[in-house]
Design goal:
By secondary structure, the chain is an alpha/beta fold. It contains 15 helices and 19 strands. Helix 10 packs parallel to helix 11 and helix 14 packs parallel to helix 15. InterPro entries: LRR_dom_sf.
Length: about 525
């Protein structure tokens, strides 16, 4: 509503009224002020009425929500079904990469999250041992992985243990006792189930606490199934106290050294002797071989991982020597600084007839050449070369050797890939990773050539990165020839495609791929620059 003024001639000007006009203006303003006060009072009453209605609305909404919850179908599920559902809520299995791991006491994941929903759920959670048989421990508390949140420790006196290297004995004792009580409750809920335990110590000030935790966990060694340790070597001296431990259920043993730069300390000499008492041991992760190798039951191992990235070096001759005893080995990972003495000579090649998976990462060119050139792998079907310094000649020889058996290949920073891929026509899965940007010829290589032949015609799962912004017609042709329902004879349909772009594509990725996603193609795109992950 627009209100007219009897003094319009004075508005938006610098004219000054005479005495009579000024008197009339004052009377006009007084009348309007009284009117304005009445409106303000009405607004105040209306606002109070609105607040009352809003409060009534919120209360009714709360009551309605609470009562609708009574009718929720999940309330009708018997505890046995709830237990099975809760098990599917558990986070991913323990990862040996610290930045990806999360403490089991994290209140934002199962089982802690589920136990905070209601009393009934808490009772069901506590009565489900499958939820408590995996335990990940980070004694460093809030200084653990960035994804961790443990509010209960944030303002406690024990937090000083994580913030300063020097804490008095009483504080240290209080913290360890408190943590052990929590662990005792956790493990008590796990019943008699086999245990998967991860312990990460990332500070030398925690060595004493680590030893006490290991002593505590040793009481449950008869239930150990998978053990992951990332610790300073000195913290493991406590294992010398154990005589003929009962670790009859142990299947996986992962030991990784944590140390400061330049620290060449090694694990206690008798530490690995414990593994003699593990008849079911089949997977093992070792940072070095500076111990009596006869202590390890090599013949029963199916998964072996050597990583010398945190140790001065690992002798390649020792590796080949122990591999000769691995009669049942199915998976082998070699990483870090592996050294071959110049005078070391091999009389014959090493045959690993049961090996199906081989991963080479971070191994120097000379070492990778001597390793790969000494292998005979008649049944290898999965190969990962995550090593920009790998010997091209030895890699090509290995691909030629496994050309008929290899179905899965992962490579990183390997140029001239089409030359490599022509050697392995039976590939079903392929992952190509690059630290630098690759151009559109990667997609062009997988479309029809002038001869009408196709690279990797049996491929159904493909991951590639990093690409440039890309060209629409190149991707469209690739999708049309490898992902459509109608393809050239003998060419399998791609079922899964992952593309990593350095920058946002200059075309509508969703529009280009929508036709194929409707036909069932699982495709996703990761844009590194924008840290944007979208699933199509």
């Amino acid at each position: 509503m627009t209100m007219s003024s009897p003094f319009i001639q004075f508005l938006s000007t610098n004219l000054s009224p005479n005495a009579e006009e000024a008197h009339k203006i004052r009377q006009f303003c007084f009348a309007r002020s009284s009117e304005l006060a009445g409106i303000k009072e009405k607004i105040s009453l209306a606002q109070e009425a609105l607040r009352t209605l809003q409060a009534q609305h919120d209360e009714l909404d709360r009551v309605l929500h609470d009562h609708e919850g009574i009718l929720s179908p999940i309330r009708q599920l018997p505890p046995e079904i709830l237990q099975k559902v809760f098990v599917y809520c558990l986070p991913q299995p323990l990862l040996p990469i610290p930045r990806l791991a999360r403490s089991s006491f994290n209140v934002e994941q199962a089982p802690m999250l589920l136990a905070h929903v209601s009393r009934q759920w808490r009772r069901v959670v506590h009565a489900t041992p499958e939820l408590w048989c995996t335990l990940s421990i980070f004694p460093q508390g809030l200084k653990g992985p960035a994804t961790d949140r443990q509010p209960s420790l944030e303002h406690s006196p024990q937090a000083k243990l994580f913030q300063n290297r020097e804490v008095d004995a009483e504080e240290h004792k209080t913290y360890v006792i408190s943590l052990c009580k929590s662990l005792d409750f956790w493990l008590g809920c796990s019943g008699n189930y086999p245990l998967t335990i991860r312990l990460d110590l990332h500070d030398y000030s925690q060595i004493v606490a680590g030893r006490q935790l290991i002593r505590f966990l040793a009481a449950y060694s008869h239930r150990w199934k998978r053990i992951y340790l990332t610790v300073p070597p000195r913290s493991l001296a406590v294992f010398d106290e154990f005589q003929e431990p009962d670790i009859s259920l142990l299947e996986t043993f992962h030991i990784q050294k944590w140390s400061r730069r330049g620290d060449n300390s090694r694990f206690p000499p008798h530490f690995f002797s414990l593994l003699r008492y593990a008849p079911r041991l089949c997977q093992i992760y070792l940072p070095h071989l500076d111990f009596e190798t006869s202590l390890i039951p090599w013949r029963q191992l199916t998964d072996l991982h050597f990583d010398a990235s945190l140790t001065p070096r690992m002798d390649g001759g020792d590796i080949l020597s122990v591999l000769q005893d691995c009669a049942e080995l199915r998976s082998l990972t070699l990483g870090g600084y592996i050294h071959f003495p110049a005078e070391l000579q091999f009389t014959e090649k090493l045959t690993l007839p049961t090996l199906h998976h081989l991963k080479i990462m971070g191994v120097q060119e000379a070492a990778s050449e001597r390793l790969l050139s000494n292998f005979i792998l008649p049944n290898l079907d999965q190969l990962e070369i995550c090593n920009p310094r790998a010997s091209r000649a030895s890699a090509i020889d290995l691909l030629i050797q496994c050309s008929s058996t290899l179905t899965s290949l992962t490579v990183k920073n390997v140029d001239d890939m089409d030359m490599f891929l022509h050697l392995v026509p039976n590939l079903v899965e392929l992952c190509m990773e690059y630290d630098h940007v690759v151009e559109n010829q990667i997609f062009k290589a997988f479309t029809s050539s002038s001869t009408g032949s196709y690279l990797c015609p049996k491929l159904v799962k493909f991951t590639i990165g990093t690409c440039t912004k890309g060209q629409e017609h190149v991707l469209s042709k690739f999708l049309r020839e490898r992902c459509s329902l109608v393809r050239a004879e003998g060419v399998a349909r791609l079922e899964s495609l992952r593309i990593v772009y350095h920058e946002t594509p200059e075309f509508d990725f969703h529009e280009v791929t929508s036709l194929y996603t409707k036909d069932g193609l699982d495709i996703s795109m990761l844009i590194i620059k924008e840290c944007l992950h979208c699933h199509m």
